[in-house]
Amino acid sequence: MSPAPGSGPDVWRLPNPTDVNDGTVTIITAPAGGATSVFGSDMARVLDDHTNVRVLPVLGKGPVRNVSDILFLKSIDMGAVAADVPEFYRLQYGIPDITSQLRYIARLYHNEIHVIARSSIRSIFDLNGKRIIAPTDVGFYSARVIFNRLGMTASFDYATDDAKSIQKLIDGEADAYIVSTGKVFQLARNIRNENRALHLVTIPYDRRLQDLYLPTTLASEEYPNLLNPGETIETVAIGMLLVSYNWPENTERYRKVARFVEAFFANFDEFMKPPRHPKWRESSIVATIPGWKRFKAADDWLVARNMTPRPQVADVQQQQFETFVRQSGGQLSSDPAERSALFRQFLQWRQQHGGPPTPTR
Predict the structure, then answer these.
(1) Domain of life of the organism in this record (predicted)?
(2) 271, CA 20 to 30 Å: which among 44, 168, 285, 304?
(3) Domain 10-108+241-312, CATH 3.30.750.24 — does that match?
């Protein structure tokens, strides 16, 4: 027997057209398969309550194009943007402060910078003047910023297809391939590298990168085809942000995004639970991002709950200390005195060198 019209769960009831439009927000992510598109799907599932908020993820091109889509597409409310994209806009387009038109809501996760090159290349500094393949939407922007900050030049191939780009590297048509993406990057992990001609290249945590990037590592467990067993290399990571246009407070678009912020922040803990993407553990609603201003409704929500913003320097120190501990043997001692001594050693090294330390044993 068929149910009577209008009966059954609320999800099957026809929505009120006004409510649907009032509560729906769009978030432009990135091509399917990456962490950003999964984050959009997760937000749609967790926050969709059928009455107050509905999230519609939209597949985009990547962080650089997402900025222009947020600024100019009438149907886009928010998008995923890497924290180094504004510097790319300044270098590439001569736009000094694109963030004046944008506001960030939260840090979603970290993109690790992957540099894959032939075994003769030991560090990113060996790529000065070389031929680099950097995918237009998921690699070139970070490569441009990093090379400029390090005083390096390169001949860039602005590829649009990751798989074809990697094949060019394999065929010897470039010296390195650079991409900014969350690990584990499956295309890289799937490279057939039986002769070990290719490997992942170190990016040291140079002082010139430290105000924007975070220190991190790539390990053989993540890329057994590109690193030797037990090998770990240093690289840097950049925050992927959830970003909105800087809507005036008295506008309907501001109110829609503010309604989303209320639901997102109130349900933030739900994103830490399985089976959500594991990179949600890197997300933060309190992180302060250098060079960016927070969306006012997000700032108001945190202030009302006495939630103290966390500066990026705290994230840097924590990640450096975790690297230090791993290099010391992989575990923190349960003895408070030993823990304190290890942390003092870490701070002394950091004060002297400004980068991830190598502990004494």
Answers:
(1) Bacteria
(2) 304
(3) no
